[in-house]
From TrEMBL:
<keyword id="KW-0238">DNA-binding</keyword>
<dbReference type="Pfam" id="PF13411">
    <property type="entry name" value="MerR_1"/>
</dbReference>
<dbReference type="InterPro" id="IPR047057">
    <property type="entry name" value="MerR_fam"/>
</dbReference>
<dbReference type="GO" id="GO:0003677">
    <property type="term" value="F:DNA binding"/>
</dbReference>
<feature type="domain" description="HTH merR-type">
    <location>
        <begin position="1"/>
        <end position="68"/>
    </location>
</feature>
<protein>
    <submittedName>
        <fullName>DNA-binding transcriptional MerR regulator</fullName>
    </submittedName>
</protein>
<dbReference type="InterPro" id="IPR000551">
    <property type="entry name" value="MerR-type_HTH_dom"/>
</dbReference>
<dbReference type="InterPro" id="IPR009061">
    <property type="entry name" value="DNA-bd_dom_put_sf"/>
</dbReference>
Length: 106
């Protein structure tokens, strides 16, 4: 399918599809006239990429996955651990603010 159809089917913009291609995350086929041709497996890959980006992973890290780097899972674990630490710190800050607000309530 062409880029407009692929954008509608995957839920990402044509611009995002071009960006993913420029970054080497996907490699759509090409018609003789040069138009991109997106197959089902490429669209499935786009959905995975989108999910990883929405999870906060960087394009650099996702590209290592696309390149088949074996340490990808370990990088994701480290990212998750950093995220968990940030969440814990934010929860502590929220608890401190809640305690403060309880004290200043008239």
């Amino acid at each position: 399918m062409r880029i407009g159809e692929a954008a509608r089917a995957s839920g990402v913009s044509a611009r995002s599809l071009r960006f993913y291609e420029d970054e080497g995350l996907i490699v759509p086929g090409r018609h003789e006239n040069g138009y991109r041709d997106y197959c089902r497996s490429t669209l499935d890959r786009v959905l995975v990429i989108r999910s990883l980006l929405e999870s906060g992973l960087s394009v650099r890290l996702i590209k290592s996955f696309a390149d088949g780097a074996p340490e990808f899972a370990e990088e994701v674990r480290r990212y998750r651990d950093r995220l968990a630490a940030r969440i814990a710190a934010l929860n502590e800050q929220q608890a401190a603010l809640d305690a403060f607000l309880r004290e200043v309530r008239p």
